[in-house]
Amino acid sequence: MFIVPATADRLKRLGISGLRFLEETGSTNDDALAWAEQGAADGSLVVADTQTRGRGRLDRRWVTSPGSALALSLILLPSLVETTQAGLFAGLGAVAVAEALEQGWALKPQIKWPNDVLLGGEKTCGILAEAVWSGSQLQAVVLGIGVNIAPLSVPSQETLSFPATCIEAAAGRTVERQEVLERIVERLFFWRRALGSAEFLDAWNRRLAFRGEVVQIVMPGYNITGEVIEVDPAGGLRLRRSDGNEETVLAGDVHLRPAENGR
Ligand code: BTN
After folding, report:
1. What is the chain written as a DSSP string?
2. What is the pLDDT of residues 71-93, one digit of tens each?
3. Would you say the CB of residue 127 lies under 6 angstroms from ligand 1?
4. Average pLDDT of the chain?
5. Is the CB–ligand 1 distance for residue 62 below 6 Å?
6. Distance 168 CA to ligand 1 centre (A)
7. pLDDT value of position 46
8. pLDDT category, 152, cuts 50, 70, 90?
9. What pLDDT, on a 0 to 100 scale, did the predictor assign at position 257?
10. CB 24, CB 48: distance < 8 Å
11. Whose CA is nearest to atom 16 of ligand 1?
12. Cα(64) to centroid of ligand 1, in Å?
């Protein structure tokens, strides 16, 4: 049990309206999606110590081992303006995590578009933003965030498509999960108020990994190579192609060009 009553009180003061803490669950995103369907209030939060069926982007598996990681899913009921900003929620999570790590542990995270947080070029956090629709109306966003805290949370490198690390390895000391949780929640609510603003976009772009480098964006069905320029106001990634033309991609996985370093 890492959510002690004092942590729960502080989370409520930060803006969390309802809190479900589970020692073990399949996926906190599945729990939050079900809770949202049942009428959860804006700012409801699911946190688990262990996930047995944690999900990542593109149907990947996300492992959350007991006692070593943070798995949380925040339910946001979008305002009218936010219903037009669906492409920014993953970035909201990434900026919040990055700033939490800077402010709490003086680390220098980078954001690998669209939504991974890297430390020393290795992934320490993944974000899965999922939407609940009613027809064409965006009803809720579930912002799922998985953070590797202690070394036990890092899956063996041969099972990964991108190298991974954890906060403790980067900070060189023990890190309390509840402190990471509180700092992330505080930053999430802070940046939510400025979602879509020039300040928010700047906070994202300042930490954008591979800026000025040539990357490949890989998605089932397409594959684009270009130099990373920046994230655009809708959350897409602007690239410069080798012919000088610009292109904005809205989804995909970023890889450094294989010829450059094999990642
Ligand atoms: C990714 O890197 O592809 C995204 C990983 C997202 C993992 C988090 S852990 C909390 C929440 N519950 C899930 O099942 N997934 C997200």
Report:
1. ----HHHHHHHHHHT--EEEEEEEES-HHHHHHHHHHTTPPTTEEEEEEEESS-B-GGG-B--B-TTTEEEEEEEE---TTGGG-GGGHHHHHHHHHHHHHHHHH----EEETTTEEEETTEEEEEEEEEEEEETTEEEEEEEEEEEE-SGGGSPPGGG-SS-B--HHHHHTS---HHHHHHHHHHHHHHHHTTTTSHHHHHHHHTTBTTBTSEEEEEETTEEEEEEEEEE-TTSPEEEE-TTS-EEEESS-EEEE-HHHH--
2. 999 999 999 999 999 899 999 99
3. yes
4. 93
5. yes
6. 20
7. 98
8. very high
9. 62
10. yes
11. 144
12. 9
31 C-alpha to ligand 1 centroid (Å) = 12
Reading the block at residue 85, the tokens are 């900003």
Closest Cα to atom 7, ligand 1: which residue? 146
Q: Hey, what amino acid is at 115?
A: N
Length in residues, the chain: 263
- Whole-number pLDDT of residue 263: 36
Q: The pTM is what?
A: 0.94
Does 114 have pLDDT greater than 50?
yes
Cα of 246 from ligand 1 centre, angstroms: 31
